[in-house]
Design goal:
201 residues; alpha+beta; Alpha-Beta Plaits; 2 domains; 7 helices; 12 strands; 31% helix; 30% strand; repeat; Nucleotide-bd_a/b_plait_sf; PABP protein; RBD_domain_sf; RNA binding
């Protein structure tokens, strides 16, 4: 079977609702809305499994960013291979995005450069854009082409920065390394008659 990840779901979306939508494309093997183990509340995403990959491909093309209970859903191939997800190759970061650019607009902008595994604009709790997003391609070459093609360009009259996404852990390690090399000290209210030799002594 072929597995699709369906995200950005409203909390009350059920398997039955998703079955109604996704079975219009082709025979569905199974659907699972992921829920909190204790509260059983929806976690806002689901997995839809088709009997054949052609139907999965069609669902991705026709239903991605379509509205389910008033919210545009985000569909991508379920990434069962964790090494592809975690190695970060093909992952890019986009900042200075216009607030009107949503997941679909971001996807449409970057789809020309290669096969997108996932694409997301960061939003606050009200669903408003935070002005940055991420696109994960299946190859580092596609990511490089996207950076070369879009970095410094205007999107909705704003110049965007596009670069390789560096995970937070790596960014923090780099900051810590730089801080360990530089130890500047600022001292104020020093009498004018104190010279540099007295400081060193």
């Amino acid at each position: 079977s072929t597995s699709l990840y369906v995200g950005e779901l409203e909390a009350t979306v059920t398997e039955a609702m998703l079955y109604e939508i996704f079975s219009m494309i082709g025979p569905v093997a199974s659907i699972r809305v992921c829920r909190d183990a204790v509260t059983r509340r929806s976690l806002g995403y689901a997995y839809v499994n088709y009997l054949n990959s052609a139907d999965g491909e069609r669902a991705l093309e026709q239903l991605n960013y379509s509205s389910i209970k008033g919210r545009p859903c985000r569909i991508m191939w379920s990434q069962r291979d964790p090494s592809l997800r975690k190695n970060g190759a093909g992952n890019i970061f986009i900042k200075n995005l216009d607030e009107n650019i949503d997941n679909k607009a971001l996807h449409d902008t970057f789809a020309a450069f290669g096969n997108i595994l996932s694409c997301k604009v960061a939003v606050d709790q009200q669903g408003n854009s935070l002005g940055y997003g991420f696109v994960h391609y299946d190859t580092a070459e596609a990511a490089k082409a996207a950076i070369e093609g879009v970095n410094g360009m205007l999107l909705n009259d704003k110049v965007v920065f596009v670069g390789i996404h560096i995970p937070k852990r790596e960014r923090q390690a780099k900051i810590d390394e730089i801080r360990s090399k530089f130890t500047n000290l600022y001292i104020k209210n020093v009498p004018l008659e104190v010279d540099e030799d007295e400081f060193r002594g």
